[in-house]
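hey team, just a heads up i'm posting the complex here instead of the shared drive bc the drive is being weird again. everything in one block, sequence lines first with there labels, then the predicted structure for the whole assembly after. its two chains so it's a bit long, scroll down
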Amino acid sequence: MHIPDGYLSPSTCAVLYGGAGAGWYVSLRRMKRNLNVRMVPLISVFAAFSFVVMLFNLPLPGGTTGHALGVTIAAIVLGPAGAILATSLAVAIQALFFGDGGITTLGANCFNMAVVGSLVAYVVYRAISANAALASRRRVVAAAVAGYVAVNAAALLTAIQFGVQPLLFRDAQGVPLYAPYSLGVAVPAMMIGHLLIAGVAEAAISAGLVAYLQAADPALLRATSGLVHEASPMQPAPAGSLRRLWITVAFLMFLTPVGILAAGTAWGEWSASRFATAEGRARIAASSNHQPVPDKMPAGIERLATVWTAPIPAYAPAFIKSPHFGYFLSAAFGVGLLILLSFAAQAYVQRARPAGSGE
Amino acid sequence: MSQRGKFALTLASLTRAMSGALTSEIVARRSGLLQSLDPRVRLAGLLMLVVAVTLSHRIVVVVALFAVAILLGLASHVSMAILAKRVWLTVLAFTGVIALPALFLTPGVAMFRTPEGFPSITSQGLIAATFLITRVETAVTLTTLLVLTTPWMHILKALRAFRVPQEAVMMLAMTHRYIFLLAETANQMFESRASRTVGVLDARQQRRVIARSAGVLLSKSIEFSNEVFLAMQSRGFRGDAKVLVDFRMQSSDYLALASCLVVAGSAVWLGRS
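-- predicted structure starts here --
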């Protein structure tokens, strides 16, 4: 999954450096705020541990061997921010020191494995192990599923990054300039190995490590268990950060009309009506590497287009004349809806949680 | 494969990682063109060339940059055998396998007449596969030259000079040190386990042994990080790290940087599609 230099275009690399950079920035900010200088050696040692674990060859069913990434156990012990930093450090050292993975693609590798891998592993582990006791068998299962899903999510992202290269970057003769396979080839080629080998290796090592820690050192599982109310070293202090979060959300809502500036249509997000006009079809063709577009609306799209009618289609409420204000209002509505849903989910979880389980 | 074989595989991976690092330290101490330059110039210059490789849309330009990389390697007394073994053959094996189906799968003009039902090699496929292999070979050769000719601590100092956050540089330095310690510990654990094992373990038992070994290593790592933290605190560490940057740019460094800039700029210009 370590993409070498030369497989991705510079613009793809730049975008993914941006994605990884956002993950590093947030994680470093959290670390600095809560930290606890103690986290510096802890994250460094964990990065070294992830690196060494990647060298362990694990015998897998079917007679083959695979190696784990170590991102899941990092997310379980350190939390997502710590795992992003530790895994990024391991990936950076592999690229800078051992030449495994490229330097221009370092952002892509960190984004796929460290940022997405850590977040997916953490969310899946927390979702499955919710309210389970530290010694519960459910935590072992949660670690296995989290490891399997995280590695395959990272692999899928890598495959998509490979697969979009020939769509976006070709020379005048139509020769792909970077990774040459389309999504139809890249996704199955990448996923078969990860679904059958790498995902199983990560699941096995993560489950084995959690089972070992339950018996030998359960305190290490406490920070992300959801069973303690005191802040773990990597969790943000809620008071000041919440206010800043609200300010950031408000700022982002004001920025939403920026989306109108983007030219063309989002690839694959065409409404059924786009196929009906020559101009719409020309736009679809332009954004699809000039592949031929059907003259009339595909039957499947036509059938499914009316299954659900959005209350605010295209972020433009019918009663608002200004598209900018429509975008802003849609953002406010969406954020408000999400806040209501999260309050409802929080109330439900608090009611469902048995008394004393939080201690 | 027997369990000894599988333990041996892990031991071999650990040993290979450590011996690879040792080779870098040895090459970095030799006197040569790249070794004589300021590490910041080495880092910036070679990265400029890597970016030029990825930006170029013409194979001939990428091949020219590959020739530049070989000349830099020769002038820096980097063994071509090391480059062939560590880079060229490895990349060829890995990227070659990936690029091979592109010969048949890339839509385009068929180069040869093949029997009905058999896929044919397209000229676009041949160019795409050649492009991918030459591009990856060149980029990896350049980054390997950086790794081989620059001690790790100098790379870190150079990163700091490029405004990479202090915490990140500090953690990279610590991680690098711990990797060797933990790899050595893991090596010893597997060696002692293999020497005590009699008979044959099935795959499930082997997985359990390896997962427990990883667990013991994790516990040792955490314990070790606590000890390191106490040691750092006792020496006055309060979260700020002082990195001593004592690099001095010479006129030869400016010349080398300008040369890299000209070569990379020309490659980007000539490599336009």
